[in-house]
Fold this protein.
Amino acid sequence: MKKTLFLSLLSAVALSTSVLAEDAKPAPKDGAKPVKRELTPEQAKLRKEITAKYDTNKDGKLDKEERAAISEDDKAKMKKAGLGGNRPKKTAE
C-alpha cells in the first residue's frame, strides 16, 4: 500500500514538473535572437512617431544618445502604451 501511494505521488510530481517546464519560455541561447513581440497598431504608430521625432541621423533606429534625448512626456506616453523601460539595467560586477 505504501509503495503504491509513493509511486503515485512520485508520478504526480513528475507530471506536474513537466507541465510547468512546457509553460516556461526558454531563454535565448548564445547567438540566438530574442523573440520579438507583436505590437498593437497603437504601439506601432507611437513607436514610429517617436522614432521620426528623435532619429537625428535618420537611420531608422534610435541609438543611445537619441534615446537619452527623449523628453519625459514622451517617455511617459511610451510607458503608458507598454513600450520601453522593460530592459534590465546593467549592474557593475
User: Anything to note?
Assistant: The chain has four helices and no strands. The helical segments are 2-23, 41-54, 64-68, 72-81. The chain has a mean pLDDT of 78.
